[in-house]
What we know:
Bound molecules: zinc ion
Shape: globular
Helix content: 40-55%
Radius of gyration: 20 Å
Strand order of the largest sheet: 1-8-5-4-2-3
Largest sheet: 6 strands, parallel
Distance between the termini: 55 Å
Amino acid sequence: MIKSCQMQISIPSILKISENELDFIGKYLNNFSFQNIAIFYSAGIDQIYGERIETGLKKAGINIVQRLIIDEINIENIIHTAFSIPKTVNALVGVGGGKALDYSKYCAHVIALPFVSVPTSTSNDGFCSPNSSLFVEKKRKTVNARIPYGVIVDIEIVKNSPVSCIYSGIGDLISKITAGWDWKEAVQKGYEDFNDFAYLISQNTVIDFLNYQKQDIKSNKFIYHLVNSLLMSGISMEIAGSSRPASGSEHLISHSLDMISASPKMHGLQVGFATYLCSYLQDNQFDLVKDFLINTGFFEYLYENPLDKSSFIQAINLANTVKENFYTVLSEPAILNKAIDFLNCDSISQKILA
Ligand SMILES: [Zn+2]
C-alpha cells in the first residue's frame, strides 16, 4: 500500500548566527522587504538592547509601527494583542529570552505574519521551534505555532546571558538522547509514527555537540555550537510534525515539576537532570550522558542550585499522566521503583536532590 503524504515543512529563510548580529537585524529585514514591523521585547531586555537594536533598524530604514514589552504569556492576551496589530505591519520581531519569543511567535501564528526570532539567551530550543509555551486556563501548555521565518542570534549577547541560561540550554540539548530512545520504543510498540529524517537530525546534532563538551562554556565556539544544535532540535520537531524527536520521558518529569513545585527551576536544568535519570532507566548511553554533564559543569551548577527531592520523586510518579497516549520508559510499571532506588544510591543524585 502506498501511503499518501502531504506534509509541508518550513525552515527559517533568514538564519544568522554570529558575533554582533544585533546591529544587522534591519539589513536582514530589508532583504525580505519587511519594512514595517512590530517589535516585542522581554521586560528588561528593551532597556539593555533596545537602543542598539532600534538605532540599527532606523539606519536600515525599518519603521517600528508597534513596540511592546512582554512580561506574561497568557494565551487570551496574546490573541487580543494579535488582532490589535496595525494592518501596515508586515513582520513581527521578538527579542529576549523565553517570554517575548513565545508571545510574539504565537501572535504571528494567529494573524499569519512572518516572525523573526532574536534570542538574547538560549535556555531551550524554543527560539526556533514550531510551538509556544503559554498559559492556557492558568496551566502551562505547549501549543502549536509556526517555525520562525527568521532566526538571528548574536552569540556575543548569548555568551553574556546568565550562566543558568547556558546550563539550561545544555540540559535541553542532551535530552534528545533519551527523547529519541522513547520515540523509537513507542514506534516499535505501534503507538507512534516514525520520521527517519527528523530522528537523524536530532540525534546527529546532539552527538556532534559532544565534541565541544570540554570547551569553556563561555567561549564563542561553544556558544555557537550550542545555539546551532538547539536550533536543529527545533527544526527536527517541524520535520516530524510533533515534539517526539526533542521531548520524551525527561520532559514529562520536568512538566510534572512545573505543575507541582512551588518554584520550578529553569526548563533545561530540570530536563538535563531528568535525562541523566532516564538514560539510566533506558540503559541508553548512560555513561555518555553522565560524562557530558560532568564535563560541561552542569552537575556542578546543580550542586550549588539543588532540586527539591520530594518534588522530584513526586514528579516521577506523576510524569506518566502528563500526556495522554504518550509511551515512554516511564510507562513501564516496574520502572518507578528502579528510579527511586537509583536516586537513593547514586552519589551525584544525592548531591543534586536536597
Ligand atoms: Zn525542552
